Amino acid sequence: MSDYQRQREHVRVAVIGAGFGGLGAAVRLRREGVTDFVVLERAGSVGGTWRDNSYPGCACDVPSHLYSFSFAPNPAWPHSFSGQPHIRAYLEHVTDTFGIRPHLRLNSEVKALRWDTEQLRWEIETASGALTADVVVSATGPLSDPRIPDVPGLDTFPGKVFHSSRWDHDYDLRGKRVAMVGTGASAVQIVPAIQPDVDRLTLFQRTPPWVLPRADRRITSAEQWLHAKVPATAALRRGLLWAAREAQVSAFTKRPGRLRLVENFAKAHLRRAVKDPALRARLTPDYSIGCKRILLSNTYYPALTRPNVDLVASALAEVRGSTLVAADGTESEADAIVFGTGFRVTDMPIAERVTGAAGTTLAEEWREGMASLRGASAAGFPNFLFVIGPNTGLGNNSMILIIESQLNYLADFLRQLDTIGGRAALDARPSAVRAWNRRLQDRMTGTVWNSGCDSWYLDARGNNTVIWPGTTSEFRRVTRQVDLAEYQLLRVRSTPRTPARTEAAR
Predict the structure, then answer these.
(1) Are the C-beta atoms of residues 79 and 54 closer than 8 Å to each other?
(2) What are the contacts of 165-171 at 24+ separation with CB within 8 A?
(3) Could you tell me the superkingdom of the organism this chain comes from (predicted)?
(4) Phi and psi for 235 in degrees, rounded to 5?
């Protein structure tokens, strides 16, 4: 071992990311008695996607009392659907309440991770220095790295260009000609928020989304007082919200025909807001509701009917100076372009930075699609766990429920390592990963998510590597404990200096 290696700081666990997943992992580690860990965060503060996405109108489309940790209820949510500032403040509160600040390494973007097959540990290079760890928890999240399409001529645009998750608050949109590219969850919130202030708003719509009313309301002070004084009432509220969404899962997974009622409701919502039949036709999707993410808004459709808004029912194809050209030939002028074009979900950038036991990166191993064991472990990457890994996404419920289930798996993973003792590592068996993913893809057949639309749930090969095709209660069951038969046990040997692979740990 070199002097440089000896000087490196070593920790039991290194967590990457300080959003919901990373902070949840940090809290769980402390509750399990593990204090020898760090949380590596590339930005200067916690919050993850709720720090990055600060665009006008940003809010959650999951009810507040369900979009929070079960171990950290917030009786003071001001709205049934909370806005970005309140969610970010909640995560700051969790960080302080559970003593996570001393473990934070801010401005410490992870540049590279490499598995040391001799020492059975991870070597980690960050923007603030190097360290090693026995276990790495990747909680970077799927909605962290924006995707901007490669539009010919974009570099010639003389105005302002930014992604919705990198909003430039120093640039004043008032009185400007603004082009909004994309019609996903962010765009549906941005359009009505900026429409009253801009001179002209041009929306480039490749595919119209299904939009339902957003039943948001202010939570009264009496309700907040009751939830604070009688916590069981908040727990009941959370439980009812959860149960209602669990009951919807079969419509997405087994009986998509049941969603026709929801589709008719969405069409009625569109008819009420948009009287122009031509505009309404361009806003009506041609795919089954639920195939893409269902959006919630009371203000999106009305904003599109305003005189200063133009809907271009086509993708942005080319930029010629300040002229934007759509795929259908439509031309428009703009002073600013805002991309609401999503994130790198099926090709997570962290995978390019992680080198496993075979000397290949996770991105190389995933060249035919993301695959993991129970959404947590990838074969050939020992002691490396995901929070919000492949096929853990939800189409109708709160991701916090998935996160907490994965924290159960993390806790048991560490317990198993402690029971084994010594310098040891667990590496998911390729056969176990294949079997798990074969079952997942079989279950995807017949689900609404695989019913034919082009969504961000599908990778370049058309495989759904994002969504969990079941209930959150089922996911909790299958991630409650680590099955050692699904792993290979690695141990350090003095001679030769290579890890020995045994049969499954007994």
Answers:
(1) no
(2) 165/49, 165/52, 165/53, 165/55, 165/343, 166/52, 167/53, 167/54, 167/55, 167/56, 169/54, 171/336
(3) Bacteria
(4) -65, -40
Structure-token pair, residue 397: 């419920």
Domain annotation for the chain: domains and CATH numbers = 3-46+100-145+350-424+466-501 (3.50.50.60), 154-209+248-339 (3.50.50.60)
Rounded CA-CA distance 141/23 in Å is 12
- Which has the closest alpha carbon to 10: 181, 132, 141, 145? 132
d(CA 412, CA 323): 56
User: Which amino acid appears at position 498 of this protein?
Assistant: T
**Separation of CA 148 from chain center:** 17
- pLDDT by 10s per residue, the chain, length 506: 444 444 689 999 999 999 999 999 999 999 999 999 999 999 999 999 999 999 999 999 999 999 999 999 999 999 999 999 999 999 999 999 999 999 999 999 999 999 999 999 999 999 999 999 999 999 999 999 999 999 999 999 999 999 999 999 999 999 999 999 999 999 999 999 999 999 999 999 999 999 999 999 999 999 999 999 999 999 999 999 999 999 999 999 988 888 999 999 999 999 999 999 999 999 999 999 999 999 999 999 999 999 999 999 999 999 999 999 999 999 999 999 999 999 999 999 999 999 999 999 999 999 999 999 999 999 999 999 999 999 999 988 999 999 999 999 999 999 999 999 999 999 999 999 999 999 999 999 999 999 999 999 999 999 999 999 999 999 999 999 999 999 999 998 754 444 444 434 33
Angle of CA points 458, 463, 465, to nearest 5°: 70
CA-wise closest residue to 252 among 437, 443, 402: 443
The CA distance from 30 to 17, in Å, is: 16
* Tokens, residue 134: 């026995």
Look up tokens 């509750």; give the residue: 31
Left if phi > 0, otherwise alpha if psi is -120 to 50, otherwise beta: which for 205? beta
**Contact in structure between 288 and 453 (CB atoms under 8 Å):** yes
CA pair distance 344, 366, nearest whole angstrom: 14
**Dist. CA 414–CA 133, nearest whole Å:** 13
Residue 427 in tokens: 């590496």
Q: Are 332 and 356 a contacting pair, CB within 8 Å? A: no
